[in-house]
Amino acid sequence: MKPIFLIGYMGSGKSTLGKALASRCEVRFIDLDDYIEERSGKTIKKIFATEGEAAFRDLERRMLVEVSGFDNVLVACGGGTPCFGDNMELMNEHGVTVLLQASYERLLERLKRGRHKRPLIAALSDDELGDFITRQLEMRMPHYSKAAEVFDSTLLEDENQIERKCEAFISQFNLPLKQK
């Protein structure tokens, strides 16, 4: 099976859905940011701070090329990954890109709850966060819209919702289930 690249805005559920699918299916889950940190031996935060965004994006691209050659993987990309260079073209050429799309209200709710884990938004007020999401989505949608598929990820708030979304994803993309 060619790679499946999960793309979408932060808080859209890429990691939540990817991990849940990997536990049920014969696929490996790769969080691209974690992969970058593992391979480089540095945190994303440290790469940005010491080498800058351009160096990070170059490293991100090289790691994306690497994982695009793997079989039977689900790759959760950073929210900005599709927006740089020809990353979307690379992913579409080597696998299937799936845009996880959650409602604005759900994104705002999730990011309010988890903002302390995200340096980019940690210091924003609720109003500033809402404005930030709106601006970022406007800038990113032209890139996100190049995804081969779209999957609604609005309902991933509890185990039952996650289970239902996994079943729908498995059915839609014909993922191989783990043998019991």
Overview of this protein structure:
This protein has 180 residues and is of the alpha/beta class. The chain has helices at 14-24, 32-40, 44-51, 53-68, 87-94, 104-114, 126-144, 159-173; strands at residues 4-7, 28-31, 73-76, 96-101, 149-152. Strands 2-3-1-4-5 form a 5-stranded parallel sheet, with helices on both faces. Helix 1 crosses helix 8 (159-173). The chain is globular, with a radius of gyration of 16 Å.
Brief overview, please?
This protein has eight helices and five strands.
- Calculate the mean pLDDT score and round it: 95
Please report the distance between the alpha carbons of the first and last residues: 20 Å
Overall structural class, as computed from helix and strand content, comes to alpha/beta
Oligomer: single chain
What's the helix and strand layout?
Elements: E1 4-7, H1 14-24, E2 28-31, H2 32-40, H3 44-51, H4 53-68, E3 73-76, H5 87-94, E4 96-101, H6 104-114, H7 126-144, E5 149-152, H8 159-173
Parallel strand pairs: 1-3, 1-4, 2-3, 4-5
Helix pairs in contact: 1-8, 2-4, 3-4, 4-5, 6-7
Descriptive labels:
single chain; alpha/beta; 8 helices; 54% helix
